[in-house]
Tail sheath protein (Sphingobium ummariense RL-3), 478 residues
Amino acid sequence: MNSFAFDQIASNQRVPGSQVEISNVRALQGLPPAQYKLLLIGLCYNIFNPSSVAPVRITRPEDGAVLGGRASMIHAMCEAALAANRDVELWALPVAENPAGTPATGTITIGGPATGAGTIALMIGGQRIQVQVASGASANTIAAALNSAINAFGDQYVTSTVAANVVTLTARHTGAYGNDIDVRTNYFDGEKLPAGVTATIVGMAGGTSNPDLTSIIAALGDEQYQAMAIGLADAANISAIDVDLADRWGPGRQIEGRAYFGASGSFSTLSSFGATRNGIHSTIVGGNKLPDPPWKVAAAFAAVAAYNLQIDPARPLTDLVVTGIRAPRLEHRFTRTERNLLLRDGISTFRVTPAGEVAIERLISCYQVNAAGFDDPSYLDVQTTATLGYMRSSWRARMAQKFPRAKMTADTIAAVRAETIALARDWEDAGLMEDVDGFLAGLVIERDSGNPTQLNILMTPDTVNGLLQLAARIEFIL
């Protein structure tokens, strides 16, 4: 019996000569690079007929406008993801609005006349609109100017109409998502309304009937997206995503990924919502009175997380700046106590830097309790599933590379064991696991008792955890 086998050279040839085949079985050394694809799922305008559209590669913000229309949800998500990180592989999938949906509306009622010249600094969905006001301008004149400025802003998420001194805003998209479009004046310090002018805002509300993502999810098939940013963050669609991601995580498909959602609301609102979720592979980033709409928050956070987990799936994401997302005003930011409680309710948190930038504090899964209803932190941090997913893919790649068309022999089993141990040491060197000796002690490789062609392997890697808290005690001496 030969000690090795050829793939392309038969042993029964009679013609004299030499033949040499080339094999790449030993070519690759070390760990394979991680590959991350980020998929954005968001609304487009119905005239774009998304039923015939598959995920599209995105390389520039204008691609989102072509895909779903200017100022559409999917356009805004493309802009946000690229602003946060331009190096992650980005794809987008547009979703049609629910035909039965109604758009959210809000109003801005202007009081006047202006007793001094100045500027109205309006912000809608994080987008700044400035309107110059002349001294003596009436409320109706100011309202008309405000209406014109809003409609002239091409990428605005709302349209507006005016009647006397009342400007009515209407979300471009139907559905409840328009209720989360923030409308405010004087976001930046130093901004104020002109003397004599008032602006009474009734926030966006009344949007109803969201689309169902079930058919969209099915259309994705078995294409793997390691990260997804979902603009449709209602309970029904999050549940549908949870089911699909759990199936993708399983051994039958092995195309794991994580979904990122944004949510805007008070502490009690977010805490109550988070307590109803328990998805291992879903992450909800929450904030109070966010200037930017939640779908932009989801896209931006997903882009930053995907890029950095691709570099090192075990390294904490804490303090990474999320470029392009505006921070809540100081009075609307959650306290440390509130953020700690939100992290216990499945809501991920962010901090605001001294420069006013939004930075990741801790990204967690929504998983909180096991099947028996007891607290279970095993899948708390997003790095855990990212690390395990990479371990699985790198082990499969190593086995496929080293044992193509292998036969089940004692030598093969020994070689599988040796390659698994070598891979574990590579994981340790990369900072993905520790205690290789413990891994070796727990490693089991055996033939399946019922299937003569199956080799069963039990691995117990001790995954590396992030250093997130330091606790010290100072006992001073006078």
